[in-house]
Amino acid sequence: MATLKDLGEYLDLSVTQVSRALNGHSDVNEKTRLRVQQAAKKLNYSPNIAARNLVSGRSGVMGLVSRVPVGEASDNYLDVIVGLSAQFAKRNKQFIIHIIDKNEDEIEAYRKLVNSGAIDGFVIVEAIINDPRIAFLQEKSFPFVVHGRTPNENNFPYFDIDNYGVAYSLTEHLIKLGHKHIALINGLEGSCYSAARLKGYQAALAAGRLPFYPHLIRSGGMYESLGIVSTVQLLTHTEIKPTAIIAGNILIARGVYKALDALKLDIPQHISVVAHDDVLPRFRASAFYPALTVTRSALESSWGPLAEYLCGTIEGVPLKKLQQVAPFEFMTRASTAAVNNIKI
Amino acid sequence: MATLKDLGEYLDLSVTQVSRALNGHSDVNEKTRLRVQQAAKKLNYSPNIAARNLVSGRSGVMGLVSRVPVGEASDNYLDVIVGLSAQFAKRNKQFIIHIIDKNEDEIEAYRKLVNSGAIDGFVIVEAIINDPRIAFLQEKSFPFVVHGRTPNENNFPYFDIDNYGVAYSLTEHLIKLGHKHIALINGLEGSCYSAARLKGYQAALAAGRLPFYPHLIRSGGMYESLGIVSTVQLLTHTEIKPTAIIAGNILIARGVYKALDALKLDIPQHISVVAHDDVLPRFRASAFYPALTVTRSALESSWGPLAEYLCGTIEGVPLKKLQQVAPFEFMTRASTAAVNNIKI
DNA sequence: TACAAAATCCAAAACGTTTCGGATTTTGTA
DNA sequence: TACAAAATCCGAAACGTTTTGGATTTTGTA
After folding, report:
1. pLDDT attached to residue B67
2. For residue range B273-284, what is the model confidence (pLDDT) as tens digits?
3. Given an 8 Å threshold on Cβ–Cβ distance, is A89 in contact with B98?
4. pLDDT band for position B341 (50/70/90)?
5. B4 beta carbon < 7 A from strand C?
6. d(CA A130, CA A126)
7. The most confident of A334-343, B98-107, B258-267, by mean pLDDT
8. CB–CB of A158/A192 below 8 Å?
């Protein structure tokens, strides 16, 4: 493996100049730079990462800490890993996942990794309210980026979608169709995005001068099973039955469809259904009949910004450039209709 | 972050001795070693990995190269990643996955990674006959370990299960029950394990003095869909209909069960079914009715040896200690019966 | 006690890169 | 041409570790 020294000897240049030429510094003659670049290619030079890391004091490794994903939770976990991995690779960073045991303390795992110096920064997914991971890393002033954001001040890099807007739009859409009992099958209680969606939902209700029924809110892991269970529960409630259901994602929506089918209720004649579509490759909204009305925002498009922002943080890019709330589209399709008064 | 130099000054020792004390060299007084270790803990010392890598000439990173997993293929891919990641973490190695694009050349990706010096060794999964990855890495004499092994000479580290034996046992079991038309729904053609299983199947047929019907062999990605399609095809063949089916794994078996149900054929009254069970956490053999007769060998138990063997290769452990063919269990359950003569 | 052997220690070099501070050369201007 | 400014270059230090080759101290034996 050729080194800078080899190149220097070959070109009769100092190691310094070779290094600076390759790294695009300004104080090197363009002709020289060209010669160096050609020589580098010819001698198949590739910088020694360990040496570079040693002087930079960084490791070039980005990490994601998570527990072993089990059951339904693992369904889209792979997409996260693959997506982030590809994006970091593009930026010449390594990306590792650190799996922690069931009964291992999460913060302790972060502490170890931070102390080891093996990792330059973390990606935090599934942020929760008052997230201890964020608190810990902020206290250590260690670089990280968050997928999502908190209801509090967010003085850290993040990429998020407009969850408030998503819920507001879906609710508003249903209200305009005359629905007064609108159920929300939300994500895990305590998660930031669920909180944001609940707020959006409540705001739309308030704007439509509709009362808020806590009973119409369901929460849990965003999987098919939650959709099934919640739908059945909502529709067996004796007093307030929803005439419309907002599903937190496509998996939940699938559960809702299955349950409604089992309950012999038609969409949208008996019940309207809407959802948010993360455009998960393996769970397509197009598979729904009747076609599902959704807000749409591809989860896949978050990996690029997340990687970018984390690298940016480490390189000292100002915070304002490392925060983004991505928009969403509204796709009106066939799963919603004006409310009717069929007793169900 | 404390360095060796800090420790040396604190203890009034040379950097050399501190290093040797911590690394367990013999020429350091036990009392000194103790002092050093205590000081290291007290000053929260943790070795700088970049510096260590620089002098060792290694990166401490193990890699897995793969294409973006799509569709059914992604189902157990996560288990591979998580399993290997955890095992390497246990050995203080980093583990990264390198995702390559649809139209990117695989060997070229390996070449780049090898040249970059960013990676110490590779894990190769899904080995195929005359695998170009193995050929490339062997030619470069670059460390790697293979999940599986080839039909040729295997002068490299590997961990495999006894695929020949699996197929032989399953086939023999069915032959003993009087079956003469035994179908094999195998993995991808060209893959090493499929080839081994085919050989085991044929050997058992030969031992039972039964003819080999190529029509009874099906191949493909080992997913439910293959099981469904193959079963229907096998049973709509006009001449030779199998009275028993060997499914390559649990997913295929699930497809077989579904297809047989759809075809209104009973297990084992009309058809016997056996399978190999990799003990995938999300696809349990216990979910089958009637209970499925299987050979069993947990895929999960391969990640440890694979990580161990790859680390061993790099450290120069002799090859004999880096090769293993794991055994399997035979579990006779309710999905097999003596052949009968019901015309189907 | 004397001397060899064993035990314990250390200074310096090496890994390959980046960067600091300054040196040298070229260019521009009067 | 003379001199300042700009452009281009370089030596040396630094990052933190391991290892080499030898120095020093302690122990064992006669």
Report:
1. 87
2. 999 999 998 889
3. yes
4. low
5. no
6. 12
7. B258-267
8. no
Residues from chain A contacting residue B53 (CB–CB below 8 Å)? 49-50, 53
Give the model confidence (pLDDT) of A313-322 as tens digits.
998 899 999 9
Residues of B with Cβ-Cβ distance to A114 under 8 angstroms: none
Q: For residue B193, with 0-12 CB atoms within 10 Å meaning exposed, 13-18 middle and 19 or more buried, which class applies?
A: buried
pLDDT average, residue stretch B338-342? 73
pLDDT of the residue at B343: 53
Whether CB of B28 is under 7 Å from strand D: the answer is no
**Domains of chain B and CATH, by start:** 4-47 (no CATH), 61-161+300-326 (3.40.50.2300), 163-298 (3.40.50.2300)
Tokens at A123, concatenated: 């990606």
pLDDT at A75 over 90: no
B9-22 CB burial, b ≥16 within 10 A, e <16: ebbebeeebbbbbb
For B107, B124, B132, the CA distances from B135, given in Å and listed in that order, are 10, 12, 5
Tens of pLDDT, residues A248-273: 999 999 999 999 999 999 999 999 99
Question: What pLDDT band is residue B165 in, cutting at 50, 70 and 90?
Answer: very high
What's the CA gap between A237 and B301, in Å, rounded?
Answer: 47
d(CA B324, CA B135): 20
Confidence bin at B71 (pLDDT 50/70/90):
low
Q: What is the pLDDT of residue B303?
A: 97
* pLDDT in the model for residue A147: 97
B56 contact to strand D (CB, 7 A limit): yes
Strand partners, A83: none
Inter-chain Cβ pairs, chain A and chain B, closer than 8 A: 91
Residues 6+ apart with CB under 8 A from A164: A196, A197, A199, A200, A203
Task: Indicate the helix (H) or strand (E) that contains A10.
Answer: helix A4-11
Helix H or strand E segment including A6: helix A4-11
Q: What share of chain B is helix, strand, coil (3-state, %, to 5)?
A: 45, 15, 40
Q: What is the strand order of the sheet B293-296 is part of?
A: B217-218, B182-185, B244-247, B272-277, B293-296, B329-331
Residue in the structure block whose two tokens are 């138990």? B301
Residue numbers 54-113 of A with CB closer than 7 A to any atom of strand D:
54-55, 57
Give strand C nucleotides closer than 7 A to any protein Cβ.
Answer: 7-22
Q: Could you check: is the Cβ of residue B26 within 7 Å of any atom of nucleic acid strand D?
A: no
CA gap A109, A106 in Å, rounded: 5
Q: Residue A32, CA: closest nucleotide via C1'?
A: D8
Q: CB atoms < 10 A from the CB of A221, how many?
A: 15
- Residue A14 — very low, low, confident or very high, per pLDDT cuts 50/70/90? very high
- Distance set, CA A179 to CA A197, A220, A258, A272, B80 (Å): 18, 24, 22, 9, 47
Q: In this complex, is the C-beta atom of B77 within 8 Å of any C-beta atom belonging to chain A? A: yes
B146 touches B156 (CB < 8 A): yes
Over residues B97-119, the pLDDT tens digits come to 988 878 889 999 998 888 878 89
- Tell me the three state secondary structure of residue B101: coil
Helix axes A106-116, A132-139, angle to 10 degrees: 30
Give the whole-angstrom CA distance, residue B27 versus residue B29.
7
Q: Closest Cα of chain A to B27: distance in Å?
A: 27
